[in-house]
Amino acid sequence: MATTNDLKNGMVLKLDAGQLWSVVEFQHVKPGKGPAFVRTKLKNVLSGKTVDKTFNAGTKVETATVDRRSMQFSYMDGEYFVFMDLDTYDQLHVDRKTVGDAANYLIEGFEATVAMYEGNPLSVELPAAVELVIEHTEPGVQGDRSTGGTKPARLETGYEIGVPLFITTGEKIKVDTRSGEYLGRVNS
Known about the structure:
This protein is mainly beta. Helices cover 2% and strands 53% of the residues.
């Protein structure tokens, strides 16, 4: 148990009949008149739904202990992504729905943080940027400049993003995992 005064971003709360909600934002408000309160933005850990909720200051809320472990993506097993715990070498099967958009950037050997609650995987978190190889993109046309537009490129994971016209097949690039945007070339 904790109080609303102890809230932090990323903290997971158990509300509404045991549902897990992650604190995205919170703000303590002390109006000139009336009692203080805490305004929060909460994200449902399983469904991804976001809601705004207001608590009276000092209200007790139940916290959930979420275990975050660094794991390595090993391989696909049908619809499941198989991760290996780097400490115990145990394997964990995580379904595609739980992996979510992280599936677009996962290749064998990538490390990710897997959040678990009571032994069940809740989410897979990747670093803010990953380095991937361009599997295929159309060649640029004479006159293309680095400040020009973008063209589609398929990454080694099969995911397609927009890249500048000067990027060629086989190049290694840095990609933002939150937005899917091209960040730059990787000099090897």
